[in-house]
Amino acid sequence: MASLEVSREVNVKEGEEARTLDGTVDFCGNPAIRARSGRWVAGIIILLNQGLATLAFFGVGVNLVLFLTRVLQQNNADAANNVSKWTGTVYIFSLVGAFLSDSYWGRYKTCAIFQVIFVIGLVSLSLSSYIFLVKPKDCGGIDSPCQSHSSLEIGLFYLSIYLVALGNGGYQPNIATLGADQFDEEDPNEGHSKVAFFSYFYLALNLGSLFSNTILGYFEDEGMWALGFWVSAGSAFLALILFLGGTTRYRHFKPSGNPLSRFCQVIVAATRNWRMKMPSSAEDLYEGVGKDCSNNGVRRILHTDGFKFLDRAAFISPEDSDNQEQGCNNQWRLCPITQVEEVKCILRLIPIWLCTIIYSVVFTQMASLFVEQGAAMKTTVSNFRIPPASMSSFDILSVAAFIFIYRRVLDPLVGRIKKTDSKGLTELQRMGIGLIIAIVAMIAAGIVECYRLKYAQKICTHCEGSSSLSIFWQIPQYALIGASEVFMYVGQLEFFNAQTPDGLKSFGSALCMTSISLGNYVSSLLVTMVMKISTEDHMPGWIPGNLNKGHLDRFYFLLALLTAVDLVVYVACAKWYKCIKMEDRENEYGV
User: Fold this and answer.
1) What does the pLDDT read at residue 5?
2) Confidence (pLDDT) at 298
3) Could you tell me where the DSSP H helices lie in 376-471?
4) Where is 586: in which H helix or E strand?
5) Which residues make beta-bridge pairs with 33?
């Protein structure tokens, strides 16, 4: 009998070891079996899905500024503003997707629903372009303007692209987090794979856009807009089918309920106890019992100093003690320390997040002013014309190269220099390096613009290709932006995923996208302000319809200055930041 009991205990332990340790479940809601779920099988499906979905999205986004100027006949400043607003809206919708995912639907269901909306938006855009907008047929090329359009036709176009924005925005933060969920960070091997996943995820995103920026960009630049949009729709549909095909393989975290109510409970409970005398030790604060300890089995967060006022929400008053003895607890009066720390985590992240917005202003120039600048340069090699939007392929190649350089060369080298077992550069350090490279990129873009103006024709009807300076002089600014992305955006993905509580991981990814969103809106605001100020006294302004009469270089130098100021503020915020402390695990971040 004794040997039988020992055998059972061994079998139980083996069964427990076969399951994941981070609380993930399979499609049926049972604890996830390590060998039959997640890992790189599910991760690769998600990476392929991301690549195809990105191809579809950038098939619309990369040349949208040219579509607005050539097909809808908008001027450069209006087109750049509309692209910035649309791109910003894409990332605002990421908050909607993250909220639904973390609170109610879970990441898998949220991804599936928003991908369906994404496909519908692309099909609607393809149909409206083919039937209404691209008239006469194949108009919208460099020398083939389109006819004017009715308000209904333009309204249908905007409805379509904002459906695309809703679908892609709601899907993006959740697919990144769902991919990270496939790796159990409590297991050393899978934890290492999880860190690598974010780099490969961003690489898949860029490789997906490579096809859009080259092949689709060429077709759309030649006026074949409907064809380009139909290819995007087909790619999005294929991505959806591939995603659904991996359904039984995915690991899932159960949604943890409405985070807004949890945050409000902490604020209300802390306010009610503001006159109470707090205990000297954090051990006397309420840890929670049963399901109050954490949400759906996620890990507890350990107490940290700072924002001490919020600790009052976990102060156990005599009335709370009586309620506990009776088996009832009102979370509007008493919150477990994990719930209090959730609020602290978000409050600590906000300054870091705000400092990333100016970088996103720099990043968004690739989709607007870089394209307009390239269109005004020499774009021909022999008899072949290079689409200005396709120059962003050098950004993608730079991203691929620097991901390899960072993971295989720089990170191990820094680790050896530190002579510790920890990883090389921390996420905060990498984000700071990204800001520095972004400053250099804007200076490079401004210098190129100075030389473009030097060799430009001041008087021209259609000023595309009006400068004799080759478009290939834009390569350094695109390559530098790509290098900065590897440090800034990959670092952001890892940082916000690691530093948000288990029940708010999608919200962490949404913070990355929302910084891009606000960056686009700030870019639009900057362009509007610069044009308003620089056009006084009947001057053409810095960014006029004819760039040869403007000073786009000054706008680039202005962005470099703003990013430098942002870097100083960022370093101060990063030094102040304190990392999240999880039960039985503590990650350290620093500058």
Assistant:
1) 44
2) 61
3) 393-405, 411-418, 427-454
4) strand 585-586
5) 19
- Kindly give the parts of the chain with pLDDT less than 50: 1-16, 294, 585-591
Q: Is the peptide bond before 136 cis (omega within 30 degrees of 0)?
A: yes
- pLDDT in the model for residue 328: 65
Residue 352 is predicted with a pLDDT of 94
Structure tokens given for 478: 């695109």
In 256-336, which residue ranges form alpha helices assigned H by DSSP? Answer: 259-272, 308-311, 318-325
Residue 171, amino acid: Y
- What lies within 8 Å, CB to CB, of 173 at 6+ separation is 94, 97, 98, 101, 506, 507, 509, 510, 512, 513
The residue written with tokens 């609380």 in the block is 23
| pTM for the full predicted model | 0.79
DSSP state of 458: S
CA 299 to each of CA 23, 315, 343: distance values in angstroms, whole numbers, following the listed order: 9, 21, 15
| C-beta of residue 144 within 8 angstroms of C-beta of residue 223 | yes
pLDDT of 64 reads 84
How many Å separate Cα 525 from the centre of its chain? 21
Asked if 177 and 501 count as a contact pair (C-beta separation under 8 A), the reply is no
The pair of three-digit structure tokens given for residue 544, joined into one six-digit string: 């006029």
Alpha-carbon span 262 to 344, nearest angstrom: 12
DSSP H or E run through 111 = helix 107-128
DSSP string, 541-564: -SS-SSGGGS-HHHHHHHHHHHHH
Radius of gyration of the chain (CA): 26
pLDDT at 566: 96
**What local confidence, expressed as pLDDT, does residue 375 receive?**
84
pLDDT at 1: 45
Using alpha carbons, list the distances in angstroms from residue 290 to 26, 260, 310, 412, 503: 23, 21, 22, 43, 17
Contact between 329 and 336 under an 8 Å Cβ cutoff? The reply is no
- Partners of 384 in the β-ladder: 381
